[in-house]
Amino acid sequence: MTDSTQSNTRPKVWPKLSQLGRESRDTLFLLATIAAIVAPHGGHLPLWASAITALMLAWRGWLAWRSEPLPGRWVLVAVLLVGASLTWITHRTLMGREAGITLLVMLMALKTLELRARRDAFVVFFLGFFLVLTNFLYSQSLFTALWTLLSVWALLSAVVLAQMPVGQPSLALAAKQAARTTLYGLPVMVLLFVLFPRIGPLWGVPADSVGRTGLSNRMDFGAMSEIANDDSIAMRLRFQGPPPPPQSRYFRGPVLAQFDGKTWRPSPLLWPGRPDPLRTQGEALSYELTLEPLRISVLPLLEMSPEPAGAELLLDGLKVRRSPELQWTAERPITERLRLNTRAYSRYHHGPLTQSGQTALVLQNYLDLPPGFNPRTLAWAADLRRQPRFSALDESQLAPALAQAVMQHIASADFIYTLAPGRYGEVTPHVIDEFWFDRRLGFCEHFSAAFVVVMRAMGVPARIVTGFQGMDPQPQDDYWIVRNSNAHAWAEYWSPQQGWQRADPTAAIAPERIQQGLALRPAPGAFAGALGQLNPTLWLSLRRAWETLDNRWQQSVLNYSRQSQFELLKNAGFQSPDWQLLGQVSAVLIGLIAILGAAWSAWQQRPHDAWSRQRARILADLRRLGVNEAAAHQGPAHWASLLQQRHGQAALPAALLLQQLERSRYAPGADQGLSYAERRRWWREFRAAGRMLRGKLPQ
Question: Which helix (H) or strand (E) holds 429?
Answer without folding.
Answer: none
